[in-house]
Amino acid sequence: MSDSTLSSTHADHNRSFWAIWSVIAAFGTYFCMYGFRKPFTAAGYAETELWGIGFKTIAVATQVIGYMLSKFIGIKVIAEMAPQKRAIAILMLIGAAEFSLALFGLCPRPWNAIFLFGNGLSLGMVFGLVLGFLEGRQLTEALVAGLCASFILADGVTKTVGTWLLNSGVTEDWMPFMAGLVFLAPLCIFVGMLTRIPPPNFDDLTDRSERHIMTRKERWDLFRRYSVGLTLLVAVYVLVTVLRSIRADFAPELWRLLGEPAAAETFTNSEILVAMGVLVVNGLAVIIRNNRLAFFVSLGTCCLGFLIISGVLLVHQTGQISAFPFMVMIGFGLYLPYVALHTTVFERLLAMTRERGNLGYLMYLADAFGYLGYVIVMISRNFYPDPDTFLHFFIILCWIAIALSLLCLIGTWYYFTDRRVKPATRIAMQHAD
User: Fold this and answer.
1) CATH number of domain containing 43
2) What is the pTM for the complete model shown?
């Protein structure tokens, strides 16, 4: 075997090793983060109300408001974060989140809900920090698909952990803090792994473009150049985030109203199937080398997700689908566009335009308005005080989101095939050269 062949084989093995390492590190870090964010949603908190509003609704809304504000702050912080500071920032933010959960356990209801605001505020920037280790690479879609699989799977697993702690005698108020302790040690290990990931190599930079920290002016310039297209994509993301968050945070209620109250392991089993399907579909985008083609294929993937949801809702109206396949297929349909936007749409937009920027900025621009929309929906939910109407409320929202999202995706398709975006692309490519 020649020296060149040996060198090529070694390079391939080295690349595969770091790809697997990166997926494990990113998946593990964000999976563990969910252990500090989601377990409290496994509790019912049925005995407490404030001004006629159920305590769980207050708790979820309070955390989401903090999480939403963190996303708006992250538009600046994540876009400007130096790579060498990401790991310590992750540990500091999650430490602050666990401290907030300790205060949640110490203080009486309903006033302890305010500490979930601090919890959400701390955790909202973790995704962008982890994402920064993965973007701008030939394998970014596969790496980020692995990262996104973490929050699909973790949503169910952390509920299972929360339910197990409750069944073991831990009180509802102390359960979130105890769940965080379960995930603390592995979190530190995975963050340590993140720090060992090498930066993008020459081939990565050639295929996907170099990623830069962004000043305020650069962020505004990028948005103005593609304002219509980005606004339409953000609108889709808002609609998907609202539905995905409702399905996640009120899963026990949805299972009950579907006629099959979920056991602890049901949350995990359903999300494993969703994660596997979404991981395969979105991860396959990595085989498309042409950035422009991959961008438009990812828009088609988003449309496919909404069509799947439509089919499930139509079958549900006939009464021919049980709770488990209903929740799995709704989850699959929602996470297809949600993960496609994370893995491919914004990544390939930067790659095909060669714009100076980073994926964290675009994701946090979308995330901020996505969670703002969810907060508005949580407030609107109070117009449906009867908990038995919640499934009906969710289905109505699904149909609204399907219609509006498909219109936005069609508009996005036409916008980015229009000649109006080509001059800015040529300028950016000349600047890159």
Assistant:
1) 1.20.1250.20
2) 0.77
List, in order, residues 6 or more apart from 204 with CB less than 8 Å away. 136, 137, 138
Q: What local confidence, expressed as pLDDT, does residue 208 receive? A: 78
pLDDT lower than 70: segments of the chain: 1-13, 44, 46-53, 262-264, 378, 380-388, 419-433
Question: Count of alpha carbons within 13 Å of 322, Cβ hemisphere only?
Answer: 5
Instruction: Tell me if 222 is assigned to some domain.
Output: yes
What phi and psi, each to the nearest 5 degrees, are found at residue 173? -75, -30
CA distance 22 to 44: 37
Q: How far, in Å, CA of 242 to CA of 64, rounded?
A: 11
d(CA 37, CA 66): 12
Let me know if residue 3 belongs to a domain: no
39: DSSP letter: G
The Cα-based distances of 146 to 25, 183, 211, 287 in angstroms read 10, 19, 21, 15
Amino acid at 163: T
Coil, strand or helix: which one is 200?
A: coil
Please report the pLDDT score of residue 49 as a whole number.
60
Write down the number of H helices and E strands in the chain. Answer: 18, 2
The token pair at 252 is 């026990």
Cβ atoms 21, 194 nearer than 8 A: no
Nearest to 165 by CA among 107, 101, 110: 101
**Does residue 169 lie in a domain region?**
yes
For residue 2, being part of any structural domain is answered with no
pLDDT of 433 reads 39
Structural domain harbouring 156: 15-432
Structural domains counted in the chain:
1
Strand ranges (E), 279-424? none
Residue pair 125/258 in contact by the 8 Å Cβ criterion = no
- Please list the residues that pair with 53 across neighbouring strands: 50
Gyration radius from the chain CA atoms: 21
C-alpha 33/C-alpha 153 separation (Å) is 12
